[in-house]
cellulose 1,4-beta-cellobiosidase (non-reducing end)
Amino acid sequence: MDANWRWAHVIDDYVNCYSGNAWDSSYCPNGPTCTSNCAIDGVDKASWGGTYGVTSDSDGIRLVFVTAGPYSNNIGSRVYLMDTDDLNYRMFKLKNREFTFDVDVSGFGCGLNAAVYFVEMDRDGGYAEYSGNEVGANFGTGYCDAQCPHDVKWVAGEANCNNWKPSPTDQNSGAGQYGCCCYEMDIFEANNMAASYTPHDCAITGFHKCEGTECGDNDSGERYDGVCDKDGCDWAAYRLNQKDFYGPGSQYTVDTTKAFTIVTQFITSDGTDSGELVEIRRKYVQNGQVIENPPTNFMEMGIPPYDSVTMDYCNDIKTYFGDINDFELKGGLKAMGDALDRGLVLTMSVWDDHFAYMLWLDGQYPVDVPADTPGVMRGPCPTDSGRPADLEANVPNSAVRYFNIKYGPIDSTYPH
């Protein structure tokens, strides 16, 4: 369980250091003081399900959106796969490999995100690198991603309480002075209405503590000035004009009312581990049938029928959509391949979106741009959907199940 969800309290006491969406200034006037005063707790067996809404069986895990705990409501969760020593994260080197899992998003609708992805966190959660870290991966420390988030409470071994601003809309979150950036490979960001997979590059390697312009913050107008590519090169069937491919019901090629298998393949230039990453290919399996990724559907606009993420696809589709091609500027697929060589941490989460209501995934986004503008329609969800207050009140029991996770050589982990 990620450190952000764990109880932060005064050392050897029951007093909260962080409560609601704010730090207690008497214990946390600044980062170093807060770090010396406060600690995070472990997670006992009962708390996994009773507090965080995470349960497991022999095949996988189930994450519930809202869990009414003994002291407060828990919203979402973020968990990692540990290595066999239970002290370090399991590192995946995916180049010339495929990653496969089964998923059930039948109970996850508009405005929610069931995410399976890889990020370039430190294997030990920063335990060896940062002196303030008296615990590491086994306490869920060291998170980072390509959005360089500021809501992470502990950054590089220190409390991120400096200039902390509680969120005006999220009772549990806020933003501190520092962000935490790293490469991110989104395998699956989805609900039962829309889905995408997206590589995100960075101009740095490994975990990076950012401040100011290098964080690329949206609210400062510096999204494309930061060290990471926040847009990435996304593959989303609905956005690519394949609107009947993925959705709830038998009329869709992938019927999200039932579980299905997702296969993501990382193809190299010469079919070896040392080759350059040149393609990220997607397959689905449902009802015993292998379903190939659909091609882009813009032939009349001169866009070839791409059916995977390649640099030609990224360059052509970003030009057609009028998007800034920060993915190419940050190194494209070659740079992502280098990150895959270094090793990434498997992350699984569920969350709602207080900034854009998840419309960037499943609806019209931006909402002030005409719907017939290329690339604006990302899914069928209405523009008034995805409000966190509505979701938390009306569909708190929404849940996703991830199971049968596999990893191996190309075409080795699924029936075909």
